[in-house]
Amino acid sequence: MYDFPPGLYTDVRVEKVFETKIDFLQEDLKECRIREHEAAFIRVFDGKRWYYTSTTDPGRIQEEIDALAALAGTTGARGTVAGHPVVEKFPVSTGEYLQFTAGKSIASIPKEEKIRLLTDYFPVLSGVPPVKLWRAFYRDKREQKEFYSSKGSRLIFDIQHTGLVFGFELARGKKRFSESFQKTGSYFSELQGEKENLENFLMQCTEFLNHARPVKPGKYTVVLAPLPAGIFAHESFGHKSEADFMMGDENAMKEWAIGKKVGAEILSIVDDGSRPGTGYVPFDDEGTPAQATYLVRNGILTGRLHSVATAAALGEEPTGNARAVGFPYEPIVRMTTTFILPGNKSKEELIGEVKEGILVERVQHGSGLSAFTMAPSLAYRIKNGKIADPLNISVITGDVFTTLAEIDGLSDRLELFSFVLGGCGKMEQFPLPVGFGGPYVRVRNLVVQ
Amino acid sequence: MVTEKYLFKTREITLNVQDTAVVSVRRQKLSQTGLRVYANGRIGVAGALGVCDEGELAARARENLSLNILYPCEPSTGFMELDSRRGEMIPEEDFLAEVEEFLSELRRAQPDFSFSHQIKEEWSERRLVNDKGLDLKAQDEYISFTLLFREKGSLNIYDGVVGYAGKRYDRAEVLKLVNRVCTAYKNPVELKKAGTRPVVFLERNPTLGKLAKELNGQSFGTGSSLLTKKRGKKVFSSRFSLFQSLHPEDTYGPFFDAEGVVNDGFRYPLIKDGVVLCPYTDKTTAAKYNLPLTGSAVGSYDEVPKLGCRRLKIASSGRTVKELLGGEEGILIVMAEGGDFTPAGDYATPVQLAFAFDGEEFLGRLPQLKISGNLFTMFGKGFRGLSTDKPTPLGGDHFLVLDLKVEKL
User: Fold this and answer.
1) Between vectors from CA A436 to CA A435 and to CA A437, what angle results, nearest 5°?
2) Residue A371 is nearest to which of B118, B226, B409, comparing CB atoms?
3) In whole angstroms, what is the distance from residue A315 CA to residue A332 CA?
4) Contact residues on chain A for B343, CB-CB shorter than 8 A
5) Chain A closest CA to B93's CA: distance in Å?
6) Is A449 in Cβ contact with B372 (below 8 Å)?
7) Most buried by CB count within 10 Å: which residue of A74, A270, A448, B23?
8) Which positions 205-234 of B are in contact with A (Cβ < 8 Å)?
């Protein structure tokens, strides 16, 4: 295999990628791109600092390892890596874990069939008068990763996802509204049979366009549907669970001590890379196997997400969350599939108990620094326990920790979502495929504008 | 049949920073080649990473003509070469040592803060050449400091962000910028008055994003844009003019778009003195909706060129930010994440970090705020202008002053 330089920790991640991108603007095909490449990312650790490089020529990997080793040697730290806590934490993973090969690989599906999948839906989109502009997208990606380390890891695994998205802009008079419909899966066959769902969603959007009125700003009890609930879990708590943000800050480690109460007693949040979907990563990009990590259990902080380096620094264990967005980048601490666990009320009970509130079905985006925000697209007034008229809302906000404590009800069914357009962004690495979800989540006292 | 080659070459050195120290060094060198063939109103494209067989690429591109991707436009012609490098960045061999010196001084100057994220230098070359006589070549470079800062012990992932991107480096100037921000952060002040106030953004901010959405040629042509029926009409302040720009002073990267269109002076006016002139377009959109071609095609090396938003640049007011504030205390937005526009153009966002600002000094950290306004008002009677000055002379954005409603969160 490779000749790893003595005295240093070295690993090599080889990525063999097949991906398809098909775009239509209305009925016109605008893009049909198939990319296939093999490339590698190489890391060397000298006990003080990491050195990274990448290459699109697999034949040069050894040369690149040697060049990085020479660079590491210039720090004077060479020879000190044995017994280093970071190196000690690295797992040794071996084996072959390939699921999406031969007929199960999306590479085996002809591009004409992928185009036909999209065009079959076009009559649905072109038959809705307020739809002024629509676009159709097909995406798939299969990645076969190999991971080799100087500690002895020899690992091969693959991941795959595929999906279609229809984006549309509606207009009637001076009213405007845009939304999108999407279906994803691990296999091509999962994308069939969505016409009725698309028709129903277009009808819902048309109704919204026709009848939505601006919300009266104020504080409301808000019921988040599973998609916005998942965004809330991801943005408001997931990113704060990424351990790299507290590196080197003892005060932050005390503030984020395991066992601290961070939310309502009914609240539990989990990150799990073994769940099927776009957050599925059986091993991370350091060779650590996926696992379910309870971030919050019954309102108490119970875990956080780690790479090997952050786990070593905090005296905890790697969680399989070191991920890179592609071969030019190093793995950093990222989420996989993050979700709120369900509770014990039916959706109807949850909404039925609200006298005056808001149901948020879909959102454009969300964020979660000290204040959590959400920009709803489809939202509805709740009046006397019933879903009433549609509302235009710019933004819903709340203090993250206050909001976590204000959760007072969860429905009993978990829904998870995957995405093939966009993804999670952190530092320069965007878009990373992730999944998220939850049940219907009821929160008191959110500021609505 | 016309054959066209699109070449991307990039070299970068990136230092990742954690707790105000360099934790990793990443060197990258990447070359990408795209081949396009045009025939009978159609286009075929193929691409590859690294060293490639251009004959094989051309064959794949010709094969892709069978996909019937319509491209009823003529490939561009013309010759131009522009080297925007200035040679005022840190030499690559000195980069790590200089950044370590900088961080060492920063640790001493700001012991109560932890800085993280990235400091980077990048050099790029982009070339578009075809057998109709097109040959465009652009070379550029930039250095970027993007430092997330967190007061030690803070519960936040980060409390704010400071930095710049430009073609010049001066350690003392970067330290001066970071120290100004940190000093203001450590000085909490109250919002003196709620209501309509002069809000100071850096030029590239979410309000320009909404204009980009509404000035999209496809949305404009199909009628889904708020500006569709406003062409030739005055809908914004007579002080407000907006360009689409690939001018080297405005942006990093090539001076030509993905279809090889080069505008006079590298800019194209979209709004002039408050009057909507046209949306931004690529060749296909301009032809389809009978709109002016503004040269706004985007696309990776191996993609069919398509309409996308290039840099939108507001015309300068010719006045400093202090003059634009006119003696009033401004609200300088450092971090405002999570808000958005409604389809009708109403805007609201929480502001996670803002400073009171007199146009010269960052006076102190304001409490968390919410700001709101409407697209047509903020660039209408609420538009004060784009300043001549910037937070740092090293580069980055100018100040944009808009009157918006400001309240405590």
Assistant:
1) 145
2) B409
3) 18
4) 175-178, 392
5) 12
6) yes
7) A448
8) 218-219, 222-224, 226
Quote the CA–CA distance of A67 and B359 in Å, as a whole number: 49
Residue by residue, DSSP assigns B161-188 as EEEEEESB--HHHHHHHHHHHHHHHTSB
Record: contact B352-A449, CB cut-off 8 A:
no
Instruction: Report CB contact under 8 Å: A395, B340.
Output: yes
How would you class A240 by CB atoms within 10 Å of its CB: exposed for 0-12, middle for 13-18, buried for 19 or more? buried
Per-position b or e across B158-190, b if 16+ CB within 10 A of its CB? bbbebbbbbbbbeeeebeebbebbbebbeeeee
d(CA A276, CA A184): 11
3-state SS, residue B40: coil
More confident residue, B110 or A426: B110
DSSP per residue, B201-264: EESSSHHHHHHHHHTBHHHHHHT-STTGGGBTSB-S-TT--EEEE--TTT-SS-SS-TT----G
Residue B163 near residue B107, CB atoms below 8 Å: no
For B115: left if phi > 0, alpha if psi spans -120 to 50, otherwise beta; the answer is beta
Of B7, B296, B45, B33, the residue nearest B127 (C-alpha): B7
CA-only gyration radius of chain A, Å:
24
What tokens does B356 get? 């009171």
The CATH fold assigned to A9-210 is PmbA/TldD fold (3.30.2290)
Q: Tell me: cis bond preceding A431? Omega within 30 of 0 counts.
A: yes
Stretches where chain B sits below pLDDT 50 are: none
| Residues 6+ positions from A189 with CB-CB distance below 8 Å | none
Q: How many whole angstroms separate alpha carbon A286 and alpha carbon A225?
A: 35
Q: Sign (positive/negative) of CA torsion B379, B384, B386, B391?
A: negative
**Which of A132, A169, A245 is closest, CB to CB, to B157?**
A245
Flag whether pLDDT at A368 surpasses 80: no
C-alpha distance from residue A49 to each of A74, B16, B332 (Å): 11, 10, 37
The pLDDT assigned to A5 comes to 93
What pLDDT, on the 0 to 100 scale, is given for residue B135? Answer: 98
Residue A6 Cα distances to A45, A52, A149, B273, angstroms: 11, 17, 12, 67
Three-state SS string over A171-220 comes to: EECCEEEEEEEEEEECCHHHHCCCHHHHHHHHHHHHHHHHHCEECCCEEE
What span, in angstroms and rounded, lies between the C-alpha atoms of B226 and B184? Answer: 39
CA–CA distance, A150 with A46 (Å, rounded to integer): 12
Placement of tokens 């507001």 in the chain: B314
| Residue A253 binned pLDDT confidence (cut-offs 50, 70, 90) | confident
% of chain A surpassing 90 pLDDT:
84
Q: Which CATH architecture has domain B2-185?
A: 2-Layer Sandwich (3.30)
Q: In this predicted model, what pLDDT tens digit does every residue of A197-208 receive, in sequence order?
A: 999 999 999 999
User: If DSSP codes are grouped into helix, strand and coil, which group holds residue B19?
Assistant: coil
A168-194: pLDDT as tens digits? 999 998 888 999 999 999 999 999 999
Query: Do the beta carbons of residue B148 and residue B216 sit within 8 Å?
Result: no
Q: Is B353 left (phi over 0), alpha (psi -120 to 50) or beta?
A: beta
Q: B372 vs chain A: nearest CA distance in angstroms?
A: 9
| Domain range summary for chain B, segments of one domain joined by + | 2-185, 195-206+318-408, 209-314
CA angle, B183 as apex, B178 and B186 as ends, to 5°?
Answer: 125
Residues with Cβ < 8 Å from A287, sequence gap 6 or more? A11, A90, A91, A92, A93, A147, A149, A153, A155
User: Do residue A30 and residue B352 have CB atoms under 8 angstroms apart?
Assistant: no
